[in-house]
Amino acid sequence: MSVLVIKPLALGDVLRATGFTAALRRALPDAGITFAVGDYAAPALTNNPDIDEIMPMGMLGTPRRYDGAQYLAFARRLRKRHFDAAFVLDRSPAMALLPYLARIPHRIGLDSRQRGFAHTTRVSVDMEDNEVAMYRRVARMAGVDPTDTVCVFRPTHDDMAAARRLAEEFALDAGLRRVVIAPGGGVNPGAVDVSKRWPAERFAEVADWLIQCRGARVCVVGTASDSPSIAAMQRAMTEQAVSLEGRTTFGQLGALIAGGDIFVGNDSASAQLAIGVDAPSVTIFTATEPWIYGTETPRSASVFSGSKSRGLGDPPPVAMVTSAIDRLLAVSVDSGGSSRRSDAPDRPGAP
């Protein structure tokens, strides 16, 4: 059996979808699973144990970049593959049309406001539905049990070796704990929303507290687009943090986080990556709703003000974040000591 999964963007969203592919692999161990994904988000699937092939989509699916000729060309590529079934984990009507134009007989996908009209099996969703819960609903509609499947990212051996070299170069394990902080996020080809970033000065307070009160060695990570937040955080700190801005690939960042004791960051791909490698992680929500975009696990915490019934409040205070950090560090110790590992976690599953 040949199965296609479509989810073009973004890095964090594609990582959330790996729980679906884990459930699919468990239900169909002999199936060929192909994941069609945009070029920008493809690193989220590198070395994924549940996917046989990553099918690049280029910029297809990027908002405000609609090229009919490219969509038709991609549909023709799909038609030549003769897939038996397609799962569309995206609300876009353009994504729903692709397997229809490719004449894939079984087309199961999300249907928000009738935009999934081209599916043979439509899974009704609401704008307030949790992303991971939606993918699980698609699985159940297809007779696939998604129970106990979680987001997964597997760094390669090269990724882990690069992370170990960074740890040695910058003495990241010199403290009692290694903490990775990502104060940026909110920038990808489909959207720019820096309102998702918690104030850099509050990240600085958390970092100083970790160093002074918890004996941590703090490293700050991010790409060029995160540079303003990283610089502002470091200016506001009274202690010294290690900056690894621009020093890691996505996979190397995953390995670095997996080898640490805790991750702290905004609602971003980095936060979802931390969940994917099963690292203790605190995700801070300021402009996006945790009940929609959060992925709760025993080793993760979503920190926010407000509630689903009342909506988001002001950016959460520092005390809420430090409390969540202490709670997760205590859980980590109770379950076997430091979470610091030389290798990426080896576990089944995926969001």
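The record above closes out task 2.4. Task 2.5 opens with a second protein, given below.
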Amino acid sequence: MVGSQLARWAVLAACALQAGCANIGYYAQSVGGHLGLMQSARPVSQWLSDEGAAPELKQRLVLAQEIRRFGVTALHLPDNSSYQRYADLKRRAAVWNVVAAPEFSLTLKTWCFPLAGCVGYRGYFDEAAARLLAEQERTQGLEASVYAVPAYSTLGWLNWAGGDPLLNTFIHYPDGELARMIFHELAHQVVYVKDDTLFNESFATAVERLGSRRWLAAQGSDLARQRYAEFDSRRQQFRALTSATRTRLQAIYAQEDAGNNDQATMRAKKKAAMEDFRAAYAVLRESWGGHGALDAWVAGANNAALGAQAAYDELVPAFEALFARSGEDWRAFYDAVRQLAAMPRAQRIRELKRHDASPDGPQRGDAPSATKWRSLRDRPSALSSTD
């Protein structure tokens, strides 16, 4: 009863903050879905004392607590109720996000919500509902994509109610990836800027990357470090490939903005770029020994999927450079990020990128340029890291 009353109150509050209640159904599923998640969670201590809980699960929960403590003590991430409970949702994702973009643009459509502001995605606790929205976006002439999300952050707003729990959707990740997930979501509680998905996700990704490396070096096993190095190498190669693809598509779409191409020509160039992307991925996949975890993503890749990925990648090098310029001091780094967050969006992005351009910033390999595409089929090693 308390849960249902809270759900009704939250829906009414959400409507009050909007221009009307046209989205009441969406807010109802959001509140109901989150309440269901919270009600499924139990303190980790209870799981550890539960004789019916699997030994492997208990080991992962203990590890997650060690990672969380490292995040608090070494990375100065928030020390609160988050990730001290666990829930088995009996499904493969916490939520499913829908993203959409025009035919000739990588700029994501945005949806606006109370408190969180405007973001480039819309999340659903039910996969079928997410796919229905994606189809509706397609009927409006947009490209759409749906992707599973293993965890999300309530930004610390619900720490009084138990905070964000550990979930079955990611608890069995390899050690380094589990650390990345926990550090990423806690980072959202450090700094979050309304209406700036790119800034928020790139910051959290930088924290997860920097933090997981430190955790592995300090507490990870040799096997965990080895597995992480292999997985991260593949991740960086793939990100370099998608970065080059985005650069190529942006150049094509810029020609339309300048009035230099008709739509038929644009579509032909776009098709060629995507065919080259998939051919290069096939070579990369072969170099991984046939590891095909990304096959479905590549097969369905479009402007929406590529635009969503950019939010997690584009500013990461700049944040890493800012961390270096902060003397690798986490508190100083967070203070610098907060100062950026207080600026108008255009200014904060400009200032952040200025750090990345500094000769004092970390040096990274170049992503493959459009002129390298043909040689990628013969030289997969050309896919150097962007970070």
